[in-house]
From TrEMBL:
<keyword id="KW-0418">Kinase</keyword>
<dbReference type="InterPro" id="IPR003660">
    <property type="entry name" value="HAMP_dom"/>
</dbReference>
<feature type="transmembrane region" description="Helical">
    <location>
        <begin position="6"/>
        <end position="29"/>
    </location>
</feature>
<dbReference type="GO" id="GO:0005886">
    <property type="term" value="C:plasma membrane"/>
</dbReference>
<dbReference type="InterPro" id="IPR050428">
    <property type="entry name" value="TCS_sensor_his_kinase"/>
</dbReference>
<keyword id="KW-1003">Cell membrane</keyword>
<dbReference type="InterPro" id="IPR005467">
    <property type="entry name" value="His_kinase_dom"/>
</dbReference>
<dbReference type="InterPro" id="IPR003661">
    <property type="entry name" value="HisK_dim/P_dom"/>
</dbReference>
<protein>
    <recommendedName>
        <fullName>histidine kinase</fullName>
        <ecNumber>2.7.13.3</ecNumber>
    </recommendedName>
</protein>
<dbReference type="Pfam" id="PF02518">
    <property type="entry name" value="HATPase_c"/>
</dbReference>
<feature type="domain" description="Histidine kinase">
    <location>
        <begin position="267"/>
        <end position="489"/>
    </location>
</feature>
<dbReference type="GO" id="GO:0000155">
    <property type="term" value="F:phosphorelay sensor kinase activity"/>
</dbReference>
<keyword id="KW-0808">Transferase</keyword>
<dbReference type="Pfam" id="PF00672">
    <property type="entry name" value="HAMP"/>
</dbReference>
<keyword id="KW-1133">Transmembrane helix</keyword>
<dbReference type="InterPro" id="IPR029151">
    <property type="entry name" value="Sensor-like_sf"/>
</dbReference>
<dbReference type="InterPro" id="IPR036097">
    <property type="entry name" value="HisK_dim/P_sf"/>
</dbReference>
Length: 489
């Protein structure tokens, strides 16, 4: 099975953001150390030049080792700054100051270690003595490459003319004194980078879910349409996915509409042939001289066939209306118990005319979600069938009870079951599987006439729209038993 589109989108988005964030973080982390050291070097340059000016009088007078400059430096070395620099305490002065004469010989060292040493070959002193900027970074101790010290030199000029070079002042600071700041900066960048990647992943996940959800709904809709299942159109969206969904729905309606019209034209043409042939034959005979009794009989036959055609067309229009809706246009809470009571009251004249009785077993309330008008029409069709197939003086039962769905995909779902039973001849075995086909009907026991064959298909379609089902079977004590099951609200 291939990788799902949503996972591909997420992995692609995360890969792009992750690689970009990784390289950006690497650049920032790699630049922190040299950046901080460059800032420290710039500060050392300023400080070295200030100290060089302050040391010039004592260096020219030959008292650089025990003059005022040396005393001030010794005092500064003993100071405790008591500073808190970005969460790191600073309790000592890290500067080391050395002064050489014009030959590069050390004449002053704030730590008293290298006095008399020849530093003229060190890069800081060597370049400064030649009028250039001198600086170097050397190990703090011989062989210790991990602990380096930055040295920045400044020329010491004769204080009288300001041009004659009389020495070099070197200001040194251990690089490890700024290592905590470098480490903290790098950790902060990594932490914020991790938040960036996490936030990007979350945004990517949400965007992927949003896109995959829209595409998934279109995919499910297309599969349902291709399988011939009733499904509502995709929800409107203000983007290309929404436009695609509307285009698919429009295409579906056009294709289904074309097939629907072709199918119904064929069915209607087939059903109209028989009554039209009867009307044509009776009309031809009425053009000839006939006895009054025959004329009345043929005229009545024309009227009867006309009623049959009208009933077929009306029923077909009602069925077409519900079949064209893949979902309910109106959905409210409907009390089936009250609907059945109203049905019984309205059917009283028809029952009385047919010399039939209706016995109802109805609970106080039975709520379902649906369209009350369509449900009323479906129940009316079932009652009409029961009246048509009941013998004179017969009894029709109308029962409403809670029941579980028995069809696949609905098993275990709670609902309400409307059961209409009669005492007629029942349904022949050969017709049980066909009673819900359009235009299929059985002859009425008394008159031998057939209906349009559209009433039960209408009931089945209404049940489908409500998420239920309808069935017709023979009762255990004889007669037919029609059942309409609907999910409870």
């Amino acid at each position: 099975m291939g990788v799902r589109l949503g996972l591909k989108l997420f992995l692609g988005f995360f890969l792009i953001v992750g690689i970009a964030a990784f390289f950006v973080m690497r650049v920032f982390v790699d630049e922190v150390k040299p950046g901080v050291r460059q800032a420290m070097e710039s500060t050392l340059v300023d400080s070295a030049n200030v100290l060089a000016v302050m040391a010039a009088p004592d260096l020219k007078a030959g008292r650089i080792a025990d003059g005022r400059f040396a005393a001030h430096m010794a005092t500064a070395q003993r100071r405790d700054p008591r500073a808190m620099v970005w969460r790191f305490p600073k309790r000592s002065i890290d500067y080391r100051v050395t002064v050489t004469d014009a030959r590069g010989i050390v004449v002053y060292d704030s730590r008293g270690q290298d006095v008399g040493r020849d530093n003229s070959r060190w890069n800081d002193v060597y370049r400064t003595l030649r009028g250039q900027y001198g600086a170097r970074s050397s190990p703090g101790a011989p062989g210790d490459a991990d602990s380096t010290v930055m040295h920045v030199a400044a020329p010491v000029y004769d204080p009288d003319d300001g041009r004659t070079l009389i020495g070099v002042l070197t200001l040194a600071q251990p690089n490890d004194s700024i290592d905590p700041f470098i480490t903290a900066s790098q950790r902060a960048i990594v932490a914020r980078g991790a938040w960036l990647i996490g936030s990007a992943a979350l945004i990517g996940l949400l965007m992927t879910w949003w896109l995959a959800r829209g595409i998934g709904s279109l995919s499910r809709y297309a599969k349902a349409v291709s399988a011939g299942e009733p499904v509502p159109p995709p929800k409107p969206r203000g983007d290309e996915i929404g436009d695609l969904g509307q285009a698919l729905e429009t295409m579906r309606r056009k294709l289904e509409g074309k097939a629907y019209v072709e199918q119904y034209v064929q069915s209607l043409t087939h059903e109209m042939k028989s009554p039209l042939a009867a009307i044509r034959g009776a009309a031809e005979l009425l053009q000839e001289p006939l006895p009054e009794a025959d004329r009345q009989r043929f005229a009545a036959n024309i009227a009867q066939q006309e009623r049959r055609l009208t009933e077929t067309i009306d029923q077909l229009l009602r069925l077409a209306e519900v079949e064209q809706h893949g979902w309910l246009q109106r959905r409210t809470v409907v009390d089936l118990s009250m609907l059945c009571r109203q049905l019984a009251e309205d059917a009283a004249p028809r029952l009385q005319a047919a010399h039939l009785s209706l016995h109802c077993e109805l609970p106080g309330h039975a709520n379902v979600q649906g369209d009350a008008f369509l449900l009323r029409q479906a129940l009316d069709n079932l009652l009409d069938n029961a009246i048509a197939f009941s013998p004179e003086g017969g009894r029709i039962g109308l029962r409403l009870e809670a029941g579980q769905a028995g069809q696949a995909g609905q098993a275990g779902q709670g609902g309400w079951e409307v059961v209409l039973s009669d005492q007629g001849p029942g349904v022949p075995d050969y017709a049980l599987e066909r009673v819900f086909e359009r235009f299929y009907s059985l002859a009425r026991p008394g008159s031998g006439q057939r209906s349009s064959g559209l009433g039960l298909p209408f009931v089945a379609e209404v049940a489908r729209l409500h998420g239920g089902h309808a069935c017709l079977r023979n009762g255990p004590a004889g007669g037919a038993q029609a059942t309409l099951w609907l999910p409870s609200a």
